[in-house]
Specification:
The complex is a heterodimer of chains A (80) and B (415).
Chain A (H helix, E strand, L loop, with lengths): L2 E4 L3 E4 L4 E5 L13 H9 L7 E7 L7 E7 L8
Antiparallel strand pairs in A: 1-2, 3-4, 4-5
Chain B lengths: L30 E7 L3 H14 L4 E4 L15 E2 L6 H15 L1 H5 L10 E5 L2 H16 L5 E3 L1 H7 L15 E5 L3 E2 L2 H14 L3 E3 L4 E7 L2 E7 L2 E10 L5 H8 L6 E12 L7 E4 L4 E5 L4 E8 L11 H14 L8 E11 L6 E4 L5 E5 L9 H14 L13 H4 L6 H5 L3
Classes of the chains: A mainly beta (80), B alpha/beta (415).
């Protein structure tokens, strides 16, 4: 099983973690001004690269804190 | 055995006679009317129906690996059409009807076996959802019925229908026309027919870029040179984003590993297909005798065509709970494919911002059953430059209009 490095608890088994998808997706600053296309982009579209991806992870069965990690989606290796 | 590589009669080593190939291995031409990117089931079926239904044969199917070596080689081969919504029922039932005549159409055995599918209900909510889906199926002319635990046990005696398990079986929906087919033979059958029609199947040919002129794509750049294209169809499943990112077309899919596994060969014990969303099992017994089971997707995005073992472990635990007899079976092999998941568990098919590029993706965990149906409809879409009525509801624009086709109940978990 893959070990994931929690910034607070250190390396723990993958089953202790919950995946939160792409990191850095900000809520629209002016939601009332968004067009339907812009809402669709915010709600449904996320990066899907083959390679490094900035992601949110939660150490849900440990300290329960969220952190951002960079993981390569082709190798599944955490880069930092 | 005589060594013929040395001594007075030495001659170069010769491989044994190879059986006849089912298709040619052509060099790519400089230009085609239609270029299909992705030589899996959907790409090959599209090629077949372009030739058969529309007489379009100046077509190339480009495959970055070997033919049908991606999800087409990795799925659990379940075929059914008992989806909830009219839009889904139409395309999946069209596909099932094509499956029923496919062996004849392809002139090739595909071992299509209509052994029926049981979708188990384990909670009151499951029961309500199942009854609703059965009635919806009937209204759409799809064979479906609701059966109780006793009848479940009659159809598939190895299911544990006792009340002392964590998620007891309250009943099931039953679609007798559902079935399985031999996935490799399906791909080879389509490939052979497409090849006979003069379509070039080009393997080991990865697309590395596109040449565009305004809102048209004029050609694809590949590891085997540049190929001009009148129209381009993307049939790359879990790898679609790697192509649409090159084109700058945002597509709302996420690629996840999906794992499956087989047991060793066993005597026939499992006469049908059993699926359970709540316990998360879907299992059938292949013709050779392996129990074929699928897991859920791994949670994270991934392209590695493998997944984590704890997913398999969880899957086995669920299977043994529902099928106690499996406890003595040995796991023979596990593997993973990459599936393209959408927000509403429905595919994305149709036109794109480029006027001659057509998209076919988002089939997620259940694209195999759609193979002939989507091939038929995508070929129509390409030939007429207009979405076939069965795929029209699945356009990219539904994420803007909000007209989603939410099939999470019938599709998201179980396949």
């Amino acid at each position: 099983m893959q070990l994931i490095d929690c910034p607070w608890c250190g390396p723990r088994e993958e089953v202790e973690f919950h995946y939160g998808g792409q990191a850095g997706v900000a809520y629209p600053a002016a939601p009332a001004e968004l067009s339907d296309e812009e809402w669709a982009r915010f709600v449904f579209h996320r990066a899907n690269p083959k390679g490094p991806l900035h992601e949110r992870w939660s150490h849900s069965a440990g300290c329960r804190r969220w952190f951002t990690a960079v993981r390569d989606t082709a190798t599944y290796r955490f880069e930092k | 055995m005589t060594d013929t590589t040395t001594g007075p009669d030495a001659r170069p080593w010769q491989p044994p006679d190879h059986p006849d190939f089912l298709w040619r291995t052509p060099e790519p031409k400089r230009s085609y009317d239609v270029v299909i990117v992705g030589g899996g089931g959907h790409g090959l079926a599209t090629a077949h129906y372009l030739a058969k239904n529309h007489g379009i044969t100046n077509v190339a199917v480009l495959e970055k690996g070997w033919l049908a070596g991606g999800n087409m080689a990795r799925n659990t081969t379940l075929i059914r059409s008992n989806y909830l919504w009219d839009e889904s029922a139409a395309i999946y039932e069209h596909s099932l009807k094509l499956w029923e005549g496919l062996e004849e159409d392809l002139g090739y055995p595909i071992l299509f076996s209509q052994r029926g599918v049981l979708n188990l209900a384990h909670t009151e909510q499951d029961v309500r959802e199942s009854l609703r889906r059965v009635e919806a199926n009937k209204l759409n002319g799809i064979d479906a019925e609701w059966i109780g635990p006793d009848e479940v046990a009659k159809i598939c005696p190895i299911v544990n229908v006792s009340s002392d398990i964590r998620y007891p079986v309250h009943g099931a929906t039953y679609q007798p026309r559902a079935g399985i087919a031999k996935h490799d033979y399906v791909a080879w059958g389509f490939a052979r027919r497409a090849d006979e029609a003069g379509i070039d199947l080009i393997q080991d040919c990865a697309v590395t870029g596109f040449t565009t002129d305004g809102d048209r794509v004029t050609g694809v750049r590949t590891t085997r040179g540049e190929i001009a294209a009148g129209k381009v169809a993307l049939c790359a499943a879990g790898h679609t984003s790697t192509l649409t990112d090159l084109l700058g077309i945002p597509v709302p899919i996420q690629s996840h590993p999906l794992q499956a596994l087989v047991s060793e060969l066993l005597e026939p014990v499992h006469p049908t297909i059993v699926m359970s969303n709540a316990v998360h099992v879907y299992v059938s017994q292949a013709h050779k005798g392996e129990l074929v089971m699928g897991a859920g997707v791994d949670s994270y995005n991934g392209y590695g065509q493998r997944g984590a073992f704890h997913i398999i472990e969880r899957q086995m635990a669920a299977a043994v709970e529902l099928f106690p007899v499996f406890a003595r079976a040995h796991l023979l092999r596990t593997w993973g494919g990459i599936v393209d998941v959408t927000a509403d568990a429905s595919p994305i098919v149709g036109r794109t911002p480029y006027e001659n590029v057509y998209l076919n993706c988002g089939w997620g965990t259940g694209g195999f059953k759609a193979t002939p149906g989507i091939g038929w409809c995508l070929a129509h879409t390409i030939a007429h430059d207009e979405p076939h009525p069965y795929v029209a509801p699945f356009g990219l624009d539904r994420f803007v209009t909000g007209a989603l086709v939410d099939e999470h109940g019938a599709a998201a978990v179980a396949h």
